[in-house]
């Protein structure tokens, strides 16, 4: 079998597996930047506003369905570790069927969904019209976009990070070319962006499925059918998958609420503070690209060890990925502290916003440094598909954040809000730690 998760685990192999994931993660926001740049040059302010509202809707929906990626990674890694290649393929089959079903449901409900979303927004009539055009064009790519989540989950679970990078770069490259063509050359504006993105998603999905098929054929050493309906439709496996997806969805919604609450609380301190917090969150998000890379490697390696029921492999996977992740977090935190002011200045020329961001810059560095534990434990629990514990930790950490935020913001304003945000990311790890100790102890030697 020619997958990275089967190779001996060393710090060098972790680094080799992580860097393509880091680049793939960094390419994700680039897609939004391309869309914005195209409209910024060929469109109007109304087009930009409509694109922003439309993109926000898809970000929320697709992030909510991230369980298609996470759940697939865990189940695939475990099946690979157990040497059950037929189940590796069946896990992908179940994920793809669910992705297509959810995508079809989004298509079927696109009109009421769009109406409800626009009713919640405060855009002008012209902006909402542009948003509707973008939404109804891009929504046709939903089944393909969600299927790409499942394909990404399989590639991560098998440690095929270079193939993952290829798929992500293909998506971004096609999106950029098609956006320029439809929105720029054909003058379709934000609706053209939606059309181009949908076509890019379907085209990339076709290529990703071909890549996945090739990977699975290379690994195939059993006599079972390539895709066994009996395996895919196994009732117990389906129930496990749906339970895991439900738990990850609840955990993801808790995270979305916490970040939304942070942004809304910052807005209460005024536009300058809101803008400064947004800029600092860009530095935090940039750092997350790197930390996610090691967490994704942990998902694959821990999942394989869990499937093999090997405590030794489990501990080694956790230790080596965590060592590199902690070292990276320390470098990133120091970079924010030492180079954060030039980075903020590059992102905004507004003196008041710069001053506010400079004043709160240390909090961003502290957040990045302490967040590494939450990233790594998320990777461990996704790999082991211990999603119930992730759900519980998501609810507990959100409650801890809210309980800390009220008194801290009342006493210290935006500094208190950032302190509560640091408490939140520490609570995410602290809530998982007792589960981790029991999980490790219960794993066979």
**Subunit arrangement of the protein:** single chain
Instruction: Tell me about the largest β-sheet.
Output: none
Determine Rg (CA atoms, Å): 22 Å
Kindly state the percentage of residues in helix.
over 70%
How large is the count of helical segments?
15
Strand content: under 5%
Query: What gross morphology would you assign?
Result: globular
- Tally of discrete structural domains: 2
Distance between the termini: 24 Å
The succession of helices and strands, N to C, reads HHHHHHHHHHHHHHH
Q: Give me the count of strands.
A: 0
Q: Catalogue the unreliable spans.
A: none
What does the average pLDDT come to? 90
Which structural class matches the secondary elements? mainly alpha
How does the SSE layout of this entry go?
Blueprint: H1 11-42, H2 45-64, H3 67-81, H4 85-108, H5 110-120, H6 125-138, H7 142-157, H8 161-185, H9 189-219, H10 229-232, H11 235-267, H12 271-307, H13 311-347, H14 351-383, H15 387-442
């Amino acid at each position: 079998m020619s997958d990275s998760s089967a190779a001996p685990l060393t710090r060098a192999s972790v680094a080799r597996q992580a860097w393509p994931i880091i680049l793939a993660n960094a390419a994700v926001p680039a897609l939004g930047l391309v869309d914005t740049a195209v409209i910024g040059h060929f469109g109007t302010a109304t087009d930009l506003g409509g694109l922003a509202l439309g993109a926000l809707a898809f970000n929320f929906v697709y992030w909510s369905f991230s369980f298609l990626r996470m759940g697939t990674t865990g189940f695939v890694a475990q099946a690979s570790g157990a040497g059950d290649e037929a189940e590796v393929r069946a896990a992908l089959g179940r994920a793809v069927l669910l992705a297509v079903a959810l995508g079809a449901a989004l298509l079927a409900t696109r009109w009421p969904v769009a109406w409800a979303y626009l009713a919640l927004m405060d855009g002008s009539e012209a902006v909402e019209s542009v948003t509707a055009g973008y939404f109804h064009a891009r929504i046709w790519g939903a089944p393909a976009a969600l299927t790409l989540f499942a394909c990404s989950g399989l590639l991560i679970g098998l440690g095929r990070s270079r193939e993952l990078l290829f798929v992500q770069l293909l998506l971004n490259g096609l999106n950029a070319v098609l956006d320029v063509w439809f929105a720029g050359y054909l003058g379709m504006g934000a609706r053209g962006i939606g059309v181009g993105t949908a076509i890019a998603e379907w085209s990339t999905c076709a290529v990703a499925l071909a890549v996945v098929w090739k990977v699975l054929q290379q690994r195939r050493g059993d006599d079972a059918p390539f895709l066994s309906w009996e395996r895919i439709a196994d009732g117990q496996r389906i129930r496990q998958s749906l339970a895991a997806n439900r738990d990850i969805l609840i955990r993801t919604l808790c995270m979305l609420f916490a970040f939304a609450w942070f942004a809304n609380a910052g807005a209460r301190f005024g536009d300058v503070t809101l803008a400064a917090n947004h800029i600092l969150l860009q530095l935090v998000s940039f750092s997350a690209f790197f930390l996610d890379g090691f967490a994704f490697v942990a998902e694959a390696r821990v999942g394989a060890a869990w499937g093999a029921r090997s405590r030794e492999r489990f501990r080694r996977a956790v230790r080596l990925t965590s060592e590199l992740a902690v070292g990276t977090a320390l470098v990133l935190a120091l970079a924010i502290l030492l180079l954060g002011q030039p980075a903020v200045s590059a992102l905004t020329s507004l003196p008041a916003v710069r001053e506010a961001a400079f004043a709160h810059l240390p909090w961003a560095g502290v957040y990045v440094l302490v967040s590494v534990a939450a990233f790594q434990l998320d990777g461990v629990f996704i790999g082991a598909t211990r999603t119930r514990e992730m759900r519980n930790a998501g609810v507990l950490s959100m409650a801890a954040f809210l309980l800390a935020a009220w008194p801290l913001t009342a006493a210290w304003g935006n500094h208190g809000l950032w302190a509560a945000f640091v408490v939140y990311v520490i609570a995410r790890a602290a809530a998982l730690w007792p589960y981790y100790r029991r999980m490790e102890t219960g794993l066979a030697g």
